[in-house]
Amino acid sequence: MELSDIKGLGTARIKKLNAAGIFSPRDLLSRFPYSYADFTRPFDAKGLKDGDTASFIGVVSAPPLKKFLRKGLTLVRVTFDVQNAAAPPQKAVCSWFNRRYIAANMRVGARYYVTGKVKKFGGAAELSAPTAVLDDGSPPSVMPLYRPLKGLPPSVFTEALRRALEAVRIEGYFDKFIGGGGLGAAVRAAHLPRSLDEAAVASEIVTLDNLAFSICSFDILKNSRRKNRAFSYKHEPRKLQEFIASLPFTLTESQSAAIDGLVGVLRSPETMNSLLQGDVASGKTVVAAALMYYASLSGKQSVFMAPTEILARQHYKTLISLLEPFNVRAELLTGSLAEQPRKNVLFNVKTGAADVIVGTHALIADGVEFNDLSLVITDEQQRFGVAQRGALENKAVGADRLVMTATPIPRTLALTLYGDLKETRLQKRPQGARVTTKFVPAQKERDMLGYLKKCAAAGLQTFIVCPRVDADDETDLVSAEEYYAKIKPEFDEYGAALLHGRMSERQKAAVMDAFADGAVKVLVATTVVEVGIDVPDAVNMVIFNAERYGLSQLHQLRGRVGRGQNDGFCFLLSDNLTDAAKERLDYFAAVSDGFALSEYDFSRRGAGDFLGERQSGKTAFPVTPDLLKKARALASAALADPPSSARIAKSLSDLDAEYLGKLTLN
Ligand code: ADP
Ligand code: MG
């Protein structure tokens, strides 16, 4: 079904939706609210605690106050007369930093629906950077809150969504077991709830359905694989030993054990289906290289798939340096290759001239034919969707499979995300470099920059990570573009650069190369630097709005530095810390074991941080250990029911398949 099948969606609107990454009714309907604001309860300013979420309906009572705090920092404060107040009459104060746009637009007497986080100053409570929606005459009692989509006006999005909800019928794969109105009713209620309770129940069903789908698809893919290998590898332990001896370092104990164990699996009669769980910088790449070398000894091809082009290129470089001395030929296949080089690569892959093929999901595109593919390794896999995994399986029927996680994942969750894979763990970082984590209050930011400059002068490098690409009116988060502009004059002589996901692959690669070569000393970036990047001279990691990230994500970021000989620092910058956030970050600063951090986050915040955008279902409902249990039960029920499992299996051979059931026009 296409967007154009939906009544009322014309070319102009569809163009706007496409620009924001929405290409189908499924895409549209699966943009779920990240939260809900409740306007049914009376607002009481006195009862508010730091970090609470508060919502009120209010009328602007005085012209917005603009206050210039310091260069680059302006505060806008707006006072409202609350209309849904607990007696006596109340005022509510909201503040925004650097949002002059808000001041320009809020008129005295205008009525707004406002929701946001509470920040206390002494006794007085304010809402800090809340979402404020002008009353347009159709007041909701519960307002769904959607993440803004770049270039897509919220009104166009909500209108398109409303029409899609009217036009589309959703048939879930688990409806029979869920009961009630099934997935269709839940999707509707998640978007248009009548109460917070209804929203919570609906989001839970959507999330549950999504998880169960993921579990079922793993199980089905696994069962469709041939259990016993059709060939055997030549066993040449001497050659593998030569390879290991040629490495520029000595393997850690757990690396040696992992290689021994996994080669053992390759030699066994069953095909490999393994998960290599490694802590950040524990040295997974070389384990992969050893296995691919082992496969090449028998004339077999291996594939190494990474989630981003930057990572694929980095792996490719590493593998060339490790493997070429042993006459193993590696090729790189990514989406940004020009036509002629791409043809050459495809030829070498097809004829078997290439032994090892590194790439992004371009590897699973049509037209890529392998010669004798026997080993498929995917790095940081939770970023790949079900459909992509299925497509890769189809290209490599009967191949051995190794999945490497970017960051440690709690055991129960790994079971759900990866199915029942045989797990190997790499625990510690091989290097001795220490990374100390420090909190930097706003007034110490200057000192920190001074220190970074000294480092740059000494040839040491720094990452500065910001949560946004550019400034916008929705949030006060530090943006990479703004911060880069701010520090560029000071750092220009040492090389400063900007890196974010909206640059082209080519631009990103050029910047990363300059950073890896040391020409750039300070890299201001978004979390595109999060996974896998390995630069030995990078010693400092600066993280703005650290409270925004899960501990595993922070651990990933911190793991980017201290990879070489030099000790490093991880600087956390965060205003507006709630007590809970402070406790979490304190734990992070004190603990360096990625497995411990992931368990901590999973037990307290749920699984959101470990799931790719798609897999998390993006609903406001957290994936908790308890919900996982329910999802597994639901999946088992469906798998045990032949018609249900047949329908799910059929959906997997369709590249467009994702969760959210089967969509038809009403
Ligand atoms: P990750 O597990 O995070 O993918 P990498 O494979 O990128 O880690 O390895 C991190 C860094 O450690 C790389 O620079 C790699 O060359 C180096 N390395 C890997 N194993 C060892 C080792 N046994 N001794 C010293 N350095 C190692
Ligand atoms: Mg890696």
In short, what is this structure?
The chain is α/β, with parallel strands linked by helices and 666 residues long. It is built from 23 helices and 23 strands. The chain has 3 domains: 35-145, Beta Barrel (OB fold (Dihydrolipoamide Acetyltransferase, E2P)), CATH 2.40.50; 229-426, 3-Layer(aba) Sandwich (Rossmann fold); 435-606, P-loop containing nucleotide triphosphate hydrolases (Rossmann fold), CATH 3.40.50.300.
Jot down its keywords:
666 residues; alpha/beta; OB fold (Dihydrolipoamide Acetyltransferase, E2P); Rossmann fold; 3 domains; seven-stranded parallel β-sheet; six-stranded parallel β-sheet; 39% helix; globular; binds adenosine-5'-diphosphate; binds magnesium ion
Q: Largest beta sheet: what is the strand line-up?
A: 12-13-11-14-15-10-16
DSSP strand content: 15-25%
CATH architectural grouping of the largest domain: 3-Layer(aba) Sandwich
Main beta sheet, described?
A: 7 strands, parallel
Distinct small molecules bound, one entry per kind: adenosine-5'-diphosphate, magnesium ion
Q: What CATH first level of the largest domain would be assigned? A: Alpha Beta
Rg, Cα atoms, Å: 26 Å
Specify the helix fraction band: 25-40%
How many distinct beta strands? 23
